[in-house]
């Protein structure tokens, strides 16, 4: 209630209200009151226009924008993508065979393992990711959380900040435009709180696992690269290896403020030379030692290997999965380069180079009389006279391999901040031309701290390697599940077409996951625990934001409450400060001046 017992009313700022006010208050001040009203209206209009410009500018700066490239620009971006995305998957050539076998393999087992590697890269990376998953972008953004936000645009599964200027644009289809199975699935997801919670957990798990891999990956890659120097100098001590690794990690993270574009331009020649060197080495070995290993392109040898070796063959999948570790970066880093750039760089360069490189290593190992080539497949199988060049490029490529996970971390954290799952921290757009290339200073230095701690604590790649592969297999399984939902609900494909494909890819992901989960007690637990901690942080922050939004909707801050609060504050000031420290009461004129202030 207002003073005098009259009911309070919402202030009206239209012209009729000002006209009535001027008539009722016409006591010689009609002209001045009307002028004040028009002046106030002009100020309000100017403020509204200024606020509108600021909100529009904020939307342009903060909302992701899908960028497309063509011609020479597309080729240049594809070249940069090679340096940033494919370092990790490319350097798997250093240790896949040594992680798969514990003794000299027979020809049948060697060709069987090669067949599994070839078809895993073909089905998981080429077919699933390059041709299917990359189509499921959220306005150009990739990653498992982008799949969740994409679903949130088409089905009502997530709350949004009602006052946000960068709210998700809803694009919900009419029921008549969907397949019957899609309508039923959408209705279930929109009505089931449990299903919505499960989707949220799955989306956050994908982000957390990738970020956890961003802590583990650089330590593994750089430490492995420095340990490779023992090939030249076997007397290198562990403290020296750890110290050099930490120094390289510090330099790598200090380069991040230069931005993805500059780093990609600098790293791309290293990765490109590495891939082409392995391509030439593989072709040389195939032609020189054993071209019959090319029979591994038949999937018969893959099934024969698993049937012949039983449990031992299943356990060896934990080593073969390393052939496509880093595949999650293809999707997570897509926002920094574009879908077409990722496809061109993989299909045009990386994929054929890796196929020939693995086949060439198998060709040399199959004719190795010493029985030790599988323990260090890269250095033993490179052509004569290229050892030192190969060593230098291998060390450089291993260092660069960390960049894919670092860039993925920046991209994913930017996405969770936009959806209010993480506090708004400083994000730097490092390119005026490529909008989605970002750098997050706080995340960069925290990643540096985490990788240095891991390097100092573990000291070698053996224990770290036990945790490697757990993240990628869980993320690929999550991606399979969520892309299947996108195919039914957004692409509006019939469920009878999507479900069989889902089971094929889920079976492949599940087999690899079951093999790598055996490593959890030996070190894989670290990645899972770190991912659980990150998921908890994301979920708790989001819960607090949703509670805030509900409170704001339930008790909105109106102009009436603002005026009432302002009046009450003035009265409180009169009561609290009506007397000065000497006990003398303020004059009425002083109190009036306080009210005016």
Automatic annotation (TrEMBL):
InterPro entries: K+_transporter, K_trans_N
Keyword Transmembrane: yes
Gene Ontology molecular function terms on file: potassium ion transmembrane transporter activity
TM ranges: 69-98, 110-131, 236-255, 267-287, 344-366, 386-413, 434-455, 467-490, 497-517, 523-541
Keywords: Membrane, Transmembrane, Transmembrane helix
Pfam families in the cross-refs: K_trans
Cellular-component GO terms for this entry: membrane
Positions of the K+ potassium transporter integral membrane domain: 78-562
Coiled coil spans: none
Chain intervals with Low complexity compositional bias: 586-597
Stretches the record annotates as Disordered: 1-61, 568-597
Listed PANTHER family: K+ POTASSIUM TRANSPORTER, OSMOTIC STRESS POTASSIUM TRANSPORTER
NCBIfam families: kup (TIGR00794)
Descriptive protein name: K+ potassium transporter integral membrane domain-containing protein
Organism of provenance: Magnaporthiopsis poae (strain ATCC 64411 / 73-15)
